[in-house]
Amino acid sequence: MKKTLMKFAALASVLVMMLALTSCGSDDTLLVVTEATFPPFDTIDDDGNIAGFDMDLMNAIAEDQGFKVEYKDIGFDSLIPALEADEADIIAAGMNSLDPERQAKVDFSTPYFDSQLVLVVADSNTTINSVADLKPDMKVAGQIGTTGADEANALEKDGKIAKAVILDKVSDAMLQLQNGDIDAIILDKPVTESYIAKQPGIAKIVGSPIGELESYAFAVQKGNEELLEKINTGLKNMIENGTYDELVAKWF
Ligand code: ARG
User: Does ligand 1 come within 6 angstroms of the Cβ of 89?
Assistant: First the structure.
C-alpha cells in the first residue's frame, strides 16, 4: 500500500514537472502575425506552411537572439490591432514603417527593405501606360489596410477613377485583373514582380513608381523595448554575417 502511494506521488511529481516545462516552452514562443498573399515576403509554400523572406529573416534573428517564434496568417488590416490587443508579439508583413499613423500604434524595428508602389495592369492592356491614363469610369484595386489601398482611395476621392476596390488578398486582386473586373492594381513593386515571375503574362507594371519610398520593418507592441532591441541586434548580426544577403539571393 505504502509502495503504491509512493509510486503515485513520484508519478504525480513527474507529471507536474512535465506540465511546468510545456507551459514554459509555449511562454517563450512569440507569435508573429503576417498576411501571406504577399510573395516573396509572405506566402504559403507547397506544404501549406507560412514562408517567405520575412519568415526566413525573422527565424534567423530569433535563433541568433535565443527566442522562439511561430506564425499566423491573418488579414493585413488585423495585424496592428492584434498587437494592440496583446494577441500577437511581432508583425512580419512587408509593412511600410514610414507611416505616422502606424508609428503611433506600434514600434518599428530598423528597416530591412526599401520598396515602392507601382501601377499594375493586365498584360494585354494597351490604354493605361501611367497613372495619368486612368479614367473616371475605371476601377483600381488595393489590398485592405495597405498603402496601395490609400493611393487607390485618394484617386477615387480626387475623381480620377470611378472606384477604389479594396480587397482582402493580393491574390484576389490579381484574379480580378485577369477577369477584367478591375482596370488596375496599386501594389508593391517586388511583390508584383514575384506574381509575374510565377505566372508570366498575367500582368505588367506601367509608368513610374507611385507615392513615397517605403521602408519595410518588423513591428512590436508599443513600448516593448526589450524585444525591439533583440530584433534590431539580430537584424544587424544577420546583415553583418551575410545571412541577409543569402536570403535576398534565395527569394529575389
Ligand atoms: N507595403 C504595403 C504597406 O505597408 C503593403 C504591405 C502588404 N503586406 C502583406 N503582407 N500583405 O501597406
Answer: no
Tens digit of each residue's pLDDT (9 = 90 or more) over 192-215: 999 999 999 999 999 999 999 999
Other beta carbons within 10 angstroms of residue 171's beta carbon come to: 17
Question: Regarding the domain delimited by 2-114+214-251, which CATH topology (the fold level of the hierarchy) does it fall under?
Answer: D-Maltodextrin-Binding Protein; domain 2 (3.40.190)
CB atoms closer than 10 angstroms to residue 124: 10
> What superfamily in CATH does domain 116-213 come from?
Periplasmic binding protein-like II (3.40.190.10)
Ligand 1 center to 97 CA (angstroms): 10
Asked whether the predicted pLDDT for residue 6 surpasses 60, the reply is no
In the prediction, which pLDDT does 8 show?
A: 55
Domain coordinates in residue numbering, the chain: 2-114+214-251, 116-213
Nearest ligand 1 atom to the CA of 37 is 11
Most informative mutation of 76, 114, 151, 195 for ligand 1 (most atoms within 8 A of CB)? 76
* Distance in Å, CA 170 to ligand 1 centroid: 10
Alpha-carbon distance of 148 to 152, in angstroms, equals 6
Separation of CA 24 and ligand 1 centre (Å):
33
Q: Give me ligand 1 centre to Cα 141, in Å.
A: 14
Strand (E) positions, 180-245?
184-188, 203-216, 219-221
Q: Which atom of ligand 1 is nearest to the CA of 34?
A: 10
In residues, how long is the chain? 252
51, pLDDT greater than 50: yes
3-state secondary structure of 219: strand
Greater pLDDT, 159 or 12: 159
